[in-house]
Amino acid sequence: MQDIWVVIGATVLLGLLRVWINPVRKKQLQTRHVATGILKQLTPAYRKELEEHFPYFQKLDPQNRRVFAARVQAFIHSKEFIPRGYTHVNDRMKALIAAAAVQLTFGFRHLNFSHFRRILVYPDNYYSQITRRYHQGEVNKKGIIVLSWRNFVRGYADENDGRNLGLHEMAHALRLENAIANEEFDFIDPAVLRQFDELAMQEMERIHSGENFFRLYAATNLQEFFAVAVENFFERPHAFFDYNPELYKCMVRKLKQDPRQWLRIDPIPV
Length: 270
Fold this sequence. Notes:
The chain is of the alpha/beta class. The chain has a domain at 188-262: Collagenase (Catalytic Domain). Helix content is 58%, strand content 9%. The strands form 2 sheets. It has a 4-stranded mixed beta sheet with strand order 1-2-6-5. Helix 4 crosses helix 5 (91-105). The longest helix has 35 residues, at 2-36.
């Protein structure tokens, strides 16, 4: 008789666990589907912007283009684009801002910046009531990415100057996403993070001593150094490698891609 009650109790407990686990699993799957683009294919208007205005996308092979396009659509679908000084955020803005995020995270299978739900777009430099200064962009821990469109476009207009606002702000978002507890966090190998911070501190000392591969702003702190390093990683990969191969290789391990070999990114199934 006791055995029967044990079986009944176990069955009830299993049922309760299923009720609790299923919604959690469903949410995880939905997030993964959004991040991989299963949810929706890229609309023609967004694809046109990538094909005409986004060099990273243009350099990918056909299979990776398909994956990249799906992830751009997933990013756009999951974010609220808020105009500041505009009547609306147009298709070009959405497509290219999303593409900047996907470019940085393309080495990861399921990463869609889930913590960041809102993206504010200003026409140009904007005044912050908090810092009492003008900004080109910023990332807020509350889940907001802010960009000035003029500076964003300027960043992609010159592919070789090591200055790219979109990549810079997305790098800040990446670092925060990795640290904030959610369904996506802790995706960067902690050992690689430690190695990067050690190398970054050494490089920041070199900047202060007068060496200038990275601009002076990179020496502000570790967060800004990473953001500036990302700009140079994508825009000046060969020069970066020649200057500091150990740091460059650490960036490759950290971001799981190597811009020196554009077509060597392993295809990621959608």
